[in-house]
Amino acid sequence: MISGIKTTACFLVAQNKAFVEILLPLVNNLCEFCSVLKKSALTFPVVFELLIWLFYVSIYKYSYYLDIAHLPHIPDNDLPYLQICLYSICSTLYVVPYYRWAVPNLLHHKKYGWLFLLTLIYFIFLTVINNMAIAWIFEKFTEIPVQKFFHNRSLGVAMDLNIILTDSIAFLSIAFSRFSYQNEMKRHQVETDNLQLQLNMLKAQLQPHFLFNTLNSLYGLSITGSKDTPRFILLLSQMMQYILYDCDQEAVDLKEELVFLQGYFELEQKKFPNASIFLKIPEQVPSIKIPPLLFLPLVENSFKHGRHKLENDAGVYAEFSIVNNQLTFKIENETLSMNSTLMKKNTRGGIGLVNIKKRLELYYPNRNQLLLHETNDKYTAELILKLT
């Protein structure tokens, strides 16, 4: 954008050097201002349109009309005959419907022949008629010597090929930039809506999946008459509240997610009290926003396929670490033997791993690593996220 401004300025200076001393300092200040605009709510077409009206209409055309008017010099006045500046603006207003509505509409419907015809009509016939009419109005409200300039233009001395050419280039540029920007914004909005829909579907998919697994655990405790069943139900209630309400947000605090996982590990430990179910988290957890339930599929996968269900000396070990803006979650478990009834019944992965892979692609494109490693007796999953 900045290079385009300088190029445009050089072109205008080459066409008319009368305003070079005014233009160049403004260009230098504008180049600094553009870096601020990038952070503001102003869009590129709006900024570009303002620049055209500022530099081309208010300065270039004003300077051009001053040159051809041959008016007496006014000492110590950098902006003489402001009536001419006002005329340059008013005589250009007719082109606003052209570049704001007509051109984008014709481009949208791909009526390029009509666009060419409309451009000829606008910048040849309408330009002359408009300039003559505006000059006639200004003639009524001005005095000599500037009145003579408006009188001549009202009589038809308004066919300026230089102005017609630069008008058409300037305002066609605005029209095309507005059209391209609006199309890009529409495409981006469709992609954003589609992305949000995918994320909502994936998140909704996890909720019944988690509830199914935990209710199975609750059933196992209830039939054995475990005294920990009330505590189990309370934990399950708290976790379901987190899933159903807190996880409606696009992102949650990492601390909240870790509290949820700690509760889930406690539930698994109560279900298999003789197994070793362990989750290690940092003592100081930074304030980081992450997608809700991002790590849950990996935990469920280890709980579902872990040998701790059958052997007391087996377990599940998980650890979170954050180093240099990189979040790492690692979980491993001893696996069931291939001849085990549970192993034959369950297949590793399923909904959970497919879900997490899709969510990682959507939330952390090119900023994630999911490493899965399986041997005869151990399964390890490691998720690495680059936070910035």
Short structural description:
The protein is an alpha+beta fold and 388 residues long.
Q: What does this molecule look like?
A:
GO terms for molecular function: phosphorelay sensor kinase activity. Pfam families: His_kinase (PF06580). InterPro entries: Bact_2-comp_sensor_kinase, Sig_transdc_His_kin_internal. The chain has 388 residues and is of the alpha+beta class. The protein has two domains: 2-186, no CATH class; 226-386, Heat Shock Protein 90 (2-Layer Sandwich). It is built from 13 helices and seven strands. The protein has helices at 2-15, 20-37, 44-69, 82-90, 96-108, 112-140, 146-154, 161-224, 229-244, 254-271, 296-305, 341-345, 351-363; strands at 252-253, 276-280, 289-290, 315-323, 326-334, 368-374, 378-386. The strands form two sheets. It has a five-stranded mixed β-sheet, covered by helices on one side. Strands 1-3 form a two-stranded antiparallel sheet. The longest helix has 64 residues, at 161-224.
DSSP strand (E) fraction?
5-15%
- Which strand order do you get reading across the main beta sheet? 2-4-5-7-6
Largest sheet: 5 strands, mixed
What's the structural domain tally? 2
Mean pLDDT: 80
SS elements, strand count: 7
